[in-house]
């Protein structure tokens, strides 16, 4: 082939690929178009044969949960209703030997599609669920028909913990909103929902041992918006719903700062608000009143509240709260916050962190804390640290984070200038904040490598990646979708996919094409994503 014809042929492949929502890549020396999968799988190879056709006669052979998960996606995307039965075109099954070639066996899966059949094999139920999510992304429109391209995919997660966090304290979000976020996040293979259940602005979880918390401190949100709380049944319902999507719930009760709401219910446990010059600046920038003893706080400042560190009643409170939460949280983690305790002295902070983490460890759970808690020498050594500094760590953040790894535990990475989903976009919705080097483009959310963030901490010290969504400015389910999508997909890729440099697909150029191809699927799932102009969105 001469060079000009070669170029023309390559351009034709590119154009056809983009139309079909595929990404062109080199495979065995040729440019072929691969179906767009997000997060990028470990390996994907285009087949040479004709695609599988999905029709109203297509049946699925699978156990009930996997069949239901696939049927829901197929119905939303195509309107087709899958039948069930033997000898079906689509087979979904669990085979524990799956995935040994692709790294971790847990959560891994394999997909093989040809003209005659689709087979998805999971190493476990979670792996099968993730295979089904990938299969949902493979479905393509072909004129009036629906097809799945001939392809072989082997896939397994890079990190065991892949989280999204939702702050339900700054603005309360009802159960239905949380369930929708679970569905949307699970489709990107996230397996943890961290709920930030308490903060200065409200206490959102009912507890039998401390009923005054929700009776007296859940009524409002930021800006005087309505508050709310989850009953214990609501919470159990969320946990169960998440489990059905292979997600655990990580409840956070933020301490010893971020506790003004505790003082409304139990004034004897809380110090009076301490208002610094820094806080006055924030109040000037964002409006709202200064915090006052006994009055709900609906501003956006941080760092003015603290539990009483030297009062034994405080530790009875901590034991009651985490004891009750432990009993209704099947997942292994209880998060006790520890961030921005700006009005607690370093010594008091260290004492509190040591005792709170020990209380949680004694409950048989793994404590999790924001990275500041790494400064406390006596912290329970199983405590997982959550790093929320910048991609280039500043002001001792890396040292505090490294302390968790030195103790023999691991880190969850939430670099704020990359995957804080509450940062404004460069263009688009007016929602969000900018303090973390914002606005934050989709490209910045994508373009980082987990093992490069905290110096000296490589994959062995990283439990996973989590994208937090703080909700000072986020009021509705639609707001959540807009801020999270597509940037949560970038976080999902950091959490699930091979390291940058280890895969041709792990580039911004590839990601923007692949995520753009998900537009029709996301729309069919009811995800109101931000149509960022950085992404070449496919409309069908
Ligand atoms: C920092 S990150 C916070 C939150 C705020 C958030 C707003 C962290 C551990 N604390 O209290 O809501 O910034 O982006």
Indicate the CATH architecture of the largest domain: Alpha-Beta Barrel
Proportion of residues in β-strands? 15-25%
**Spatial extent as radius of gyration:** 24 Å
Largest sheet: 8 strands, parallel, barrel
User: What shape does the CA trace take?
Assistant: elongated
Q: Show unreliable segments.
A: 1-20
Q: Which ligands accompany this protein?
A: ligand TNX
**CATH top level label of the largest domain:** Alpha Beta
CATH homologous superfamily heading of the largest domain: Glycosidases
What is the helix tally?
Answer: 17
Distance between the termini: 33 Å
The CATH topology name of the largest domain reads TIM Barrel
What integer is the average pLDDT? 93
Could you estimate the helical fraction of the residues in percent?
25-40%
- Going across the biggest sheet, name each strand in turn: 13-14-17-18-19-20-21-22
Features:
single chain, 540 residues, alpha/beta, Chitobiase, domain 2, TIM Barrel, 2 domains, eight-stranded parallel beta barrel, seven-stranded mixed β-sheet, 17 helices, disordered N terminus, binds ligand TNX
Structure description:
The chain has 540 residues and is α/β, with parallel strands linked by helices. It is built from 17 helices and 22 strands. It has helices at residues 3-19, 64-78, 125-138, 175-186, 212-217, 232-244, 260-265, 277-286, 312-327, 346-362, 397-406, 416-419, 442-446, 477-484, 487-496, 508-516, 519-524; strands spanning 22-27, 30-35, 43-46, 52-54, 59-61, 83-84, 90-94, 109-113, 118-122, 140-142, 145-148, 151-155, 161-167, 192-196, 198-199, 202-203, 248-255, 333-337, 366-370, 384-387, 411-413, 462-469. The strands form five sheets. It has an eight-stranded parallel barrel with strand order 13-14-17-18-19-20-21-22, surrounded by seven helices. The relative contact order is 0.11. Ligand TNX binds next to loops.
């Amino acid at each position: 082939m001469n060079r000009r014809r070669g170029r023309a042929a390559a351009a034709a492949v590119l154009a056809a690929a983009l139309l079909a929502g595929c990404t062109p890549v080199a495979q065995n020396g040729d440019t072929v178009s691969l179906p767009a999968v997000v997060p990028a799988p470990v390996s994907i190879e285009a087949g040479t044969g004709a695609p599988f056709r999905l029709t109203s006669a297509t049946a699925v052979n699978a156990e009930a949960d996997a069949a239901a998960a696939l049927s829901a996606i197929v119905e939303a995307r195509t309107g087709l209703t899958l039948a069930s039965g033997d000898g079906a075109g689509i087979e979904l099954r669990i085979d524990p030997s799956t995935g040994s070639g692709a790294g971790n066996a847990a959560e891994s899966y394999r997909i093989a599609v040809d003209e005659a059949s689709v087979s998805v094999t999971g190493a476990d139920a979670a792996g099968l669920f993730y295979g089904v999510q990938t299969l949902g992304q493979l479905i393509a429109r072909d004129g009036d028909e629906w097809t799945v391209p001939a392809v072989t995919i082997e896939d397994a997660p890079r990190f065991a913990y892949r989280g999204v966090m939702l702050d339900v304290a700054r603005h309360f979000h009802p159960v239905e909103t949380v369930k929708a976020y679970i569905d949307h996040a699970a489709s990107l293979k996230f397996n943890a929902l961290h709920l930030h259940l308490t903060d200065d602005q409200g206490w959102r979880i009912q507890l039998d041992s401390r009923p005054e918390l929700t009776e007296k401190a859940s009524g409002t949100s930021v800006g005087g918006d309505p508050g709310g709380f989850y009953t214990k049944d609501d919470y159990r319902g969320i946990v169960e719903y998440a489990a059905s999507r292979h997600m655990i719930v990580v409840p956070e009760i933020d301490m010893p700062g971020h506790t003004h709401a505790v003082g409304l219910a139990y004034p004897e446990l809380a110090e009076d608000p301490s208002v610094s010059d820094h806080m006055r600046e924030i109040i000037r920038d964002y409006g709202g009143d200064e915090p006052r003893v006994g009055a709900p706080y609906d501003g956006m400042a941080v760092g003015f509240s603290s539990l009483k560190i030297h009062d034994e009643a405080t530790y009875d409170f901590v034991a009651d709260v985490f004891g009750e939460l432990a009993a209704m949280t099947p997942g292994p983690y209880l998060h006790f916050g520890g961030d921005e305790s700006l009005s607690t002295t370093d010594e008091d902070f260290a004492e509190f962190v040591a005792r709170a983490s020990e209380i949680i460890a004694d409950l048989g759970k793994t404590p999790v804390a924001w990275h500041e808690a790494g400064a406390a020498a006596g912290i329970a050594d199983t405590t997982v640290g959550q790093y929320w500094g910048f991609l280039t760590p500043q002001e001792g953040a890396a040292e505090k984070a490294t302390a968790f790894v030195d103790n023999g535990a691991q880190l969850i990475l939430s670099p704020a200038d990359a995957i804080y989903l509450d940062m404004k976009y460069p263009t688009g919705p007016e929602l969000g904040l900018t303090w973390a080097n914002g606005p934050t483009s989709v490209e910045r959310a994508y373009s980082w490598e987990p093992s490069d963030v905290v110096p000296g901490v490589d994959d062995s010290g990283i439990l996973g990646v989590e994208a937090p969504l703080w909700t000072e400015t986020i009021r509705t389910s639609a707001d959540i979708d807009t801020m999270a999508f597509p940037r949560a997909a970038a976080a999902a890729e950091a959490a699930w996919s091979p390291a940058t440099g280890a895969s041709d697909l792990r580039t911004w150029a590839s990601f923007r094409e692949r995520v753009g191809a998900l537009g029709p699927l996301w729309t069919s799932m009811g995800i109101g994503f931000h149509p960022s102009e950085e992404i070449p969105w496919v409309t069908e």
